[in-house]
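User: Could you walk me through two proteins back to back? I'd like the raw sequence and the structure tokens for each, with a short line separating them so I can tell where one ends and the next begins.

Assistant: Of course. Protein one, sequence then structure:
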Amino acid sequence: MEITIIIPLLAAAVQSGTPILYATLGEIITEKSGVLNLGVEGAMIIGALAGFIVSRYTGSPVLGFFAAGIAGSFATSIHGVVCLWFQGNQVVSGLALTILGAGLANYLGTSYVGLSAPGFSPFAVPLLSTIPVLGPIFFNHDILVYISYCIPPVMCLFFSSTRFGLGLRAAGEYPAAATAAGLNVLAYRWFGILAGGFLMGLGGAYLSLAYTHLWTTNLTGGRGWIAVALVIFAFWRPGRAVLGAYLFGSVMALQLRLQALGTQVPSSILLMLPYVLTVFVLVMSSWRKKTNEEPAALGVNVEPVG
């Protein structure tokens, strides 16, 4: 009996954690390059709106999905211009991006509130979905969830086993040494900003094209801030980001189910649970964090050479 209750909850945790996972992986790439981007929430909601609009007017959620990634990259490119070109404060620029993204999405999306768009539907993966316990939890979702399974191992290989990935890490750890070795640090940081923004936009697209299939104001609901916290919890490791995203997903799924069951706990308290967990995770991660986990030059601007 307990298994029949737990399995749907864990499956819902995977679904709820997927948009957070996309955003967290995007922020990891950005921070690995040495750029701190607190505008994840803004990039996500811009991506969510762009994906919804493109899918609604073209009838293709696939086009909407990629349009969301491009919109996320465009949003974070604003952060890149401020921080890499004008040498602005990365914290202030990221916060401004969040405010800009939320305001722009609410303004442009007003006429779409409550409307639906073609999206992605769950389907069972042959053979894998029949595995006891694990099958219903991990292999009965939409294609965007399955794509999210592939990104963390690819990122791990990218950071550890490719020349470009090692150069990206050098840009975030020792930009002066990387420049002396002939690497274009600003180019690597631009890649980190744009690639990270693309994944953030995909996280937003998941909310509008797979999780809800409709548009509403404040669709991201603070998930971008959770992603920023999860980067610290994950110690900038893609594998740990998966665990963290599903942990938060399980809390979100639990509070939704408790509300559906008509619990006597006030709904405002239940809605606080993911953010209470965010504070707890930050405290515990800061307490246990090793000094060599964070990119050494994170948040430090690098002036153009020449």
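----
Protein two, same layout:
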Amino acid sequence: MSNQLKKYLFQDNTVRVQAVRLTDAWQDGLVHQHYPDCVQQLLGELVSAAVLLASNIKFDGSLVLQLQGDGPVALIVVECNVNLDIRATATLREGVDVPADGSLQTLLNANGNGRFIVVLDPNRETTDMQPYQGIVPLEGNSVAQVLEGYMRSSEQLDTRLWLTADARCSAGLLLQRLPGHGGKITATVQEETWQRAVILAETLKTQELLDLPSDEVVQRLFWEETLLAFEPQNVRWHCPCTRERVGNMLRMLGAVEIESILSESDEVEVSCNFCGKPYHFDAVDCASLFTENRNSGHANPTSLH
């Protein structure tokens, strides 16, 4: 199993290469979420893209990528924080069939109102940095093309991405042209290095990206180049939802509402809106929520029976 981000740098320091391959971390995210294959693929591609991009942002917080649509898929959201903890979800529009052969445009931009949204969400406990949000039209036939267009227009960075995903793996490769800093490397040499890197990377096959370890992918593509390799970074699936947080939400509903739910069912079932993990509270569990509330000095005037 592989859940790592690998980083490399061309010898002349003009091109960054990054590769990510997620297996069990990706599969952990799908345990409680079940999507049509075409939606799952888009979600997985956005997951790898978020990891590749978040690792280059120097701030304490999270990168959030959103595909917002007006087709059968209403929203795809991926969040990746500074520690490369990821979580992701997709929201399908109720009452609308998802075609088995659905593409990015047919699934999310059916009426031309789709949007790609980038959010930098800083940790408010450690930084005074203000949140940032960038929104652009959903232009491109793939997640990779959408991101490349955004990076080119909004960040002024030449960036190429190769992304893929299936039920067992989410993987991606990133090339990024780094800004010149003068010195002995001329603009002509920088351009030649970038064009050579892109041409080599374009020989990459989707199945290779899915099946091969990241190191082997990079070695196959750039075996004639001298690359500086950095320490790999671990990636994990992590959603901060907990049973305690769900319990607090049930307390906010109030005992009367919880009693009403229990009168129609043996238990209260709540699923995390983000990762889909289910939480089950039977009558005894629910009663304890309000007993604990009274004991803590914040009693609800109505208790469960």
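The two ends are 49 Å apart (CA to CA).

Let me know if you want the two compared in more detail.
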